[in-house]
Design a protein that fits this description.
Keywords: Membrane, Transmembrane, Transmembrane helix. By secondary structure, this protein is an all-alpha fold. About 75% of the residues lie in helices and about 0% in strands.
């Protein structure tokens, strides 16, 4: 038997809270990343919509002042 298999058998099965902790460590960063990307996309869409509305409101044909 390989040493890895022996260690795995020695540790035994995980308790409920340990399983939850493993799942949080494994998938938690991806969930946080999903929320961050979703927030950034919504913010960018709102900015684009505002820029489009501002462009429609300015009918003078002059370049924007900085």
């Amino acid at each position: 038997m390989s040493p890895v298999w022996l260690v795995a058998q020695h540790l035994g099965s995980l308790h409920g809270y340990e399983k939850l902790l493993v799942l949080l460590v494994a998938f938690g960063p991806f969930v946080v990343l999903w929320f961050a990307v979703r927030y950034a996309n919504r913010r960018n869409a709102a900015e684009d919509a505002q820029d489009t509305q501002d462009a429609r409101d300015d009918l003078s044909g002059r370049p924007p002042t900085t």
